[in-house]
Design brief:
262 residues, alpha+beta, Beta-Lactamase, five-stranded antiparallel β-sheet, 6 helices
């Protein structure tokens, strides 16, 4: 959340604001100077009023107030008769200068008030937006941890309730954890055999189908595979798989399918 200084409405440094203020006043002076042969002696401070209000809008009263003083001096010196001198200041000169000072000064005062009100509301909106984002982040964290806790609970429930019908777990892509039921049904694979040889208990033609079926989370129907007995005979079984996300990886629980109702 970026908050600007209340006395500098735009994201400019003070030297940049002073330089821009001088440039705006000089542009107004240059235009009025070029129009002098056409409009004299009228409209002495019109362009200066516009320039001072522009400075007030961009940078605030700290920069528009010196601009008003500079405009009075430039206007009285170059565009009010007698030109090019401050001698013999007449009542007319004072009236013109005071009129410019009063009109421009009141406009700057009210514009400053409006800019402060606008800034105050902008600041409140930024604070509210920041709090809203913080609330959303906290809510996302709460949902994430609640979902994570729910997933962990579902995994624990799966392990406890379906332990007796679970054949093995697949964590990630290649990490297989064989359960006791697999040893009992596929007796060719012995308890003292290396874990990576578990495929000896499964019919070779079913291996690829089983792995493809495990990796596809959309599969919901049972898959029929053949487990190999110690004497080489085949034991057909139907298996299903439940998928979870655990520690950033997929955990697949392969278990016996429930018996179909007649």
């Amino acid at each position: 959340m970026k908050i600007k200084n209340a006395f500098l409405w735009r994201p400019y440094t003070a030297p940049q604001a002073w330089l821009a203020s001088c440039a705006i006043v000089l542009v107004a002076f240059g235009i009025r100077y070029m129009l002098q042969p056409i409009v004299e002696p009228y409209g002495v401070f019109h362009l200066f009023t516009v320039s001072c209000l522009m400075i007030q809008y961009l940078f605030g009263y700290k920069f528009s107030s010196p601009a008003i003083i500079a405009a009075v001096l430039l206007g009285e010196y170059y565009f009010v008769e007698p030109y090019g001198t401050f001698d013999s200041i007449a009542r007319k000169d004072i009236v013109i200068a005071m009129q410019f000072l009063m009109v421009t000064g009141f406009a700057v005062f009210f514009m400053e008030k409006l800019r402060r009100e606008s800034y105050s509301k902008e600041l409140v909106l930024k604070v509210l937006e920041s709090r809203h984002k913080t609330s959303l982040l906290r809510e996302n964290d709460r949902i994430f941890y609640a979902k994570k806790s729910s997933d962990n609970w579902a995994i624990l429930e799966e392990l406890v309730e379906d332990y007796d019908i679970t054949l093995f777990f697949v964590y990630g892509a290649h990490d297989y954890k064989i359960r006791p039921l697999f040893y009992r049904l596929a007796t060719r694979f012995k308890l003292n055999d290396p874990p990576e040889q578990w495929t000896t208990g499964l019919h070779p033609e079913d291996m690829d189908r089983l792995q493809d079926w495990i990796s596809d989370e959309s599969k919901r129907t049972p898959l029929h595979v053949r487990l190999i007995q110690e004497d080489g005979t085949e034991r057909p079984v139907s298996v299903v798989v439940d998928h979870f996300r655990f520690m950033g990886k997929q955990l697949s629980v392969v278990k016996l399918a429930p018996p179909e109702d007649d």
